[in-house]
Design a protein that fits this description.
The protein is an alpha+beta fold. It has 5 helices and 19 strands. The protein has a single domain, classed as Double-stranded beta-helix (4-Layer Sandwich), CATH 3.60.160.10. The strands form 4 sheets. A 6-stranded antiparallel beta sheet has the order 5-6-3-10-13-8. The protein has a 6-stranded antiparallel beta sheet with strand order 11-12-9-16-19-14, covered by helices on one side. The radius of gyration is 21 Å and the shape is globular.
Length: 264
């Protein structure tokens, strides 16, 4: 028996995806502020303190502590709950904030816990707890790309995360190690051992362009990786907008800029 609400869903789109969730009467889905796209009549929206999970029903101080922890991950202290209050079925949709994929994850099949990057959570069935996970290793917290704090999703319901670009799922066997760019990690199951590794070599360190550290993920467990971290995309856009464009061939590139209007 699940303790969280059971919801049906459908992923819509290819590159700019949204998830459409079908709610039965009195079923509820919770979402980050700003994720809402559309909903049928009969769904009631309510701003709640924290995530509305069972762990928060013990009193105001418990809710305050849980909501305060969310601030450490850069998220709002408040979330929005959408409840189907009439008969029949009703649908509601949530959209990813940037180009990429939405990842549906059944927490019941992941041992009841998932660790993900700080801005990965999109929405979930009511009862799923959204908390924080502290990195226990000093080096991982300092150089792992996500700092000492990541998001933690707990429960036995459906949760939805979003990521940039395409998603790659890898299941690691016991002792199997995967080295990853620190920004490409979306989520991993609780059995995964997450650490960092120095790239090594003077040329690799200073001229490799891949940073000084790799993230190392050691099995057993499952990991989700993204091909386009939002930090990488933002860095490229910022670089393109603030520097002179680099084209192939100095003469032809300069002519191209003139015809494009850049040289006027």
């Amino acid at each position: 028996m699940r303790t969280n609400h059971e919801i049906d869903y459908k992923i819509i789109g290819s590159e700019m995806q949204c998830v459409e969730i079908e709610l039965d009467p009195q079923e509820t889905v919770i979402a980050e502020p700003g994720a809402f796209m559309y909903m049928d009549d009969g769904i009631q929206m309510e701003t709640i303190f924290g995530d509305g999970s069972a762990q928060q029903n013990s009193g105001f101080m418990s809710k305050l502590f849980s909501a305060g922890k969310r601030l450490l991950t850069g998220e709002s202290m408040f979330m929005t709950a959408y409840t189907h209050t009439t008969s029949g079925k009703a649908r509601i949709a949530f959209a990813s904030p940037y180009p990429g994929k939405i990842v549906p994850i059944d927490l019941a099949q992941m041992g009841g816990k998932l660790i993900c990057q700080k801005d990965a959570f999109l929405c979930a069935a009511k009862g799923v707890s959204i908390g924080i996970e502290f990195q226990k290793k000093l080096g991982t917290g300092l150089f792992g790309g996500e700092g000492f704090i990541m998001q933690k999703l707990e429960g036995d319901g459906m949760a939805f995360c979003h990521a940039g670009g395409h998603i790659i799922e890898r299941t690691l066997n016991p002792g199997e190690t995967l080295r990853v760019d620190t920004g490409c990690i979306v989520a991993y199951t609780q059995e995964i051992d997450y650490d960092i590794q120095f790239v090594g070599g003077i040329k690799n360190t200073f001229f490799g362009g891949e940073g000084i550290f790799f993230a190392t993920l050691r099995g057993p467990g499952k990991v989700w990786l993204q091909t386009l971290p939002i930090s990488r995309l933002a860095s490229r856009v910022l670089s393109y907008g603030t520097t002179t464009r680099k084209d192939e061939g100095s003469i032809l590139g300069g002519l191209g800029n003139i015809f494009d209007g850049d040289g006027v």
